[in-house]
Specification:
The protein is mostly beta strands. It is built from 2 helices and 16 strands. Strands 1, 2, 3, 4, 5, 7 and 10 form a 7-stranded antiparallel sheet that branches. A 6-stranded antiparallel sheet has the order 8-9-6-13-16-11.
Amino acid sequence: MKSDLFSSDHMAQPAHAPGMTLQNAKSVKYAVNGEMFARQGAMIAYRGNLQFERKGQGVGGMLKRAMTGEGLPLMAVRGQGEAWFAHEAQNCFIVDVEPGDVLTVNGRNVLCFDATLSYEIKTVKGAGVTGGGLFNSVFTGSGGLGLICEGSPLVIPVSAQQPVFVDTDAVVGWTADLHTSLHRSQSIGSMIRGGSGEAVQLKLEGEGYVIVRPSEATPQKPQQR
């Protein structure tokens, strides 16, 4: 059988070492040797001896998810084999988190990560419920973190002299040394007249980077029961 479909660009190759690699721009391959974590429903294929189990978030995480619609619904993948992960054909990226690093990420942008990483769902400081109830996942430790993004992300440097303002629906994540607060860019009079649709942003100050996706919130698909 002959076709460009069967070229090396599309063919899955055996893994040479445990851990995650980019299969292509839209998927991550993970060579499992023990345990790793991924967002629920993100596995698109696997081979080998693997088991998939839903992972609870604890009482605090469940409450936050119920209140805000945000969170990080996970599954544990255990055994030995290879698994491929993707989500709605979004672009995939791998971040190597090193000891001392702290990365805050919106739960909707997490695809998979090493079991050696620790995460905690936290309220975004300065945002609260009025900022859309921002609850992000904070990753620390050492290991790989697979992220997804609608389109190609924009990474903006933040400095003490130049804070950055981002739409709360577009922000993907930011590095540890940034401070967050809400910023209102519209006057009350403008809001009364209908406004621009850009009333409140997340202000980031300090030294670091903020990651933004090139789109705002998309309508939520109805959940299957």
